Amino acid sequence: MISLIRSEIYKIGKQSKTLYALAAILIIEGFVFLSAYYQGAGIIDLLLDNLKESFEFQGNLLNGNLIIYLILNSLWFHVPLILMIIISGFLTSEYKDKTIETVMLQPVSKLNFILSKYIVSIIFTLLIVLILAVTTFLISYWIFGYGDLVVYLDGLNFFESEDASYRLINAFLSGTITMVFFSVVSLTLAVILKDATKTWIVAAIFLICSNLLLKIDFNNEIINELFFSKLTDSWQYFFYYEVPYSSIYFKNILLLAYSILVMAIGVLIFKRRDIQG
Amino acid sequence: MKRLYFLLLFFVSLNAVNGQEIDNDLLLIKRRMDSIKSYEAQIKLDVDISFINMPSKYGKVRYRQGEPTKVTSRDFIMLPKRGLDLTLNELFEHPFITVNRGQENYKGVSCKVINLIPTSSKSQFSIATIFMDTSAKRIVKSEISTKMEGVFTTSLNYKNDIDALPTAIEVEFAVNNVKIPLRFLGKETQVDRKAIKQEGSKSGKIFLTLSDVQIGR
Questions:
Q1: A158, B71: Cβ pair inside 8 Å?
Q2: Cβ(B213)–Cβ(B39) under 8 Å?
Q3: Disulfide check for B49: which of A55, A116, A250, B204 has CB 3.0–4.6 Å away?
Q4: A183 within 8 A of A261, measured Cβ to Cβ
């Protein structure tokens, strides 16, 4: 099993798509940095426009913490989309190149093979989010410095710099669980569909629907609490003024359970199916 | 004939208003405040506005005669546009007349209430109501209607009967809800535009607490 995981990691390291994923993440970061640099002050002005009548402001709200928050918001769509495309490719490329047939001719169990794919996908997801977080924190603080964070979530919430950093770090950690869920789903879709293009399309539709369903009120408390799409926003909860920790724990644990379930479905389908490119 | 009486009454009252001088008690308080050449104090700011959540902020307030009051902090702070003018310099910047409104009880203190009506178009306020504790020679409350920034009501609380500077200031004002750029919206944030429009302005309060006050005379 460990040798399979090592071999998968080696393959990923050698594949150019890994570099594309990293480049895409850095490009997203770059766009946010540029737009913040040139338009950030305008956005802050607009946000506080009505308050200017009664208040004078002192201090800088266009700082590293705000930039990190803006980049963090790429966890809604951009980052999971990139992850789903790249990770589904881990398996679809094996079908396309027929390397999966070669691997299966070796004394390798189908269970171990697909499990190693899932494990490496999760490691890859963790690595991408870690790189995103580390580069975001370093560059944002380096260019824009420290300062209070302002977020509009059920009101205008102001967080002091240290508190903001703590919330942002926790939001990245919580967001990682959401990213793992989407990665697992994309690999399971790859197991089902085998074809790269079909998997990308279905993965993108899944992500879009998941984002749309998050906003829909099902008028049913159980569905609203337990449906998978309602669990993907736990990281955003760190920006409520009073952090609802119990909701965050509940959502993350349930989302992990969903991830295991989706993985189990993928493993079962892969085991039962004949290997054909 | 009635019209003639009315016109006569109007000109007589106008003359009476023009002839009014600035209230002596106000001048006394102003002179007392002018004796303060400078002051420095630690300041704590708390915001009470329904749609703003902000922790207590700390800073330093510094005043030098002839200069505007300055507040410095290493954090982001929101300061009310009025309420920090403890030396009344902003009110006295342009000429005005005062009208005595009699005595009124405020927080257990019998206060002399006067209206300040500016006589210069340059003045930034249209009318101000001042509650003066004449025995302690200080202002305990003011309501300033500004031309551009709405109405500010300031309550001043003092540590004892002697101090010229307050230790707690409460500034109340009308404040409009914020406009929200889309990128700031969390996914779960619902924006009811109709409700926001209907809400109009709300009242907000800022509490300023002064400590370690050091006065230079």
A1: no
A2: yes
A3: B204
A4: no
At B21, give phi and psi (nearest 5°). Answer: -105, 175
Residue of chain B nearest A233, judged by CA positions: B187
**Structural domain harbouring A96:** 2-272
**Of the candidates A192, A204, A209, A194, the residue with the CA atom closest to the CA atom of residue A89:** A194
Say how far apart CA B170 and CA B156 lie, in whole Å: 7
* Phi, psi of A242, deg, nearest 5: -100, 115
pLDDT tens-digit map of B147-206: 877 888 999 999 888 888 899 999 988 776 655 554 454 444 455 555 555 556 678 889
Burial B95-123 (b: 16+ CB within 10 A, else e): ebbbeeeeeeeeeebebbbbbbbbeeeeb
Tally Cβ neighbours within 10 Å of residue B174. 16
Planar angle of CA A138, A143, A144, nearest 5 degrees: 100
What domains does chain B contain, in order, with CATH numbers?
20-216 (2.50.20.10)
Amino acid, res. A225: E
- Best residue in A35, A39, A58 to probe B by mutation, most B CBs within 10 Å? A58
For chain B, report the end-to-end CA distance as a whole number of angstroms.
60
SS (H, E, C) B144-194: EEECCCCEEEEEEECCCCCCCCCCEEEEEEEEECCCCCHHHECCCCCCCHH
- Check if B52 contacts A (Cβ < 8 Å): yes
Which pairing describes strands A156-159 and B52-53: parallel, antiparallel, or unpaired?
A: parallel
Statement: residue B6 has pLDDT above 70:
no
Q: Is residue A52 part of a domain?
A: yes
Is the residue at A277 inside a domain? no
Q: Which of B75, B149, B150 lies nearest to residue A59, judging by beta carbons? A: B75
Residue B212: in which H helix or E strand, if any? strand B201-216
Q: Which residues pair with B143 in a beta bridge?
A: B129, B153
ipTM passes above 0.90: no
Quote the number of domains for chain A: 1
Whether residue A113 is contained in a domain is answered as yes
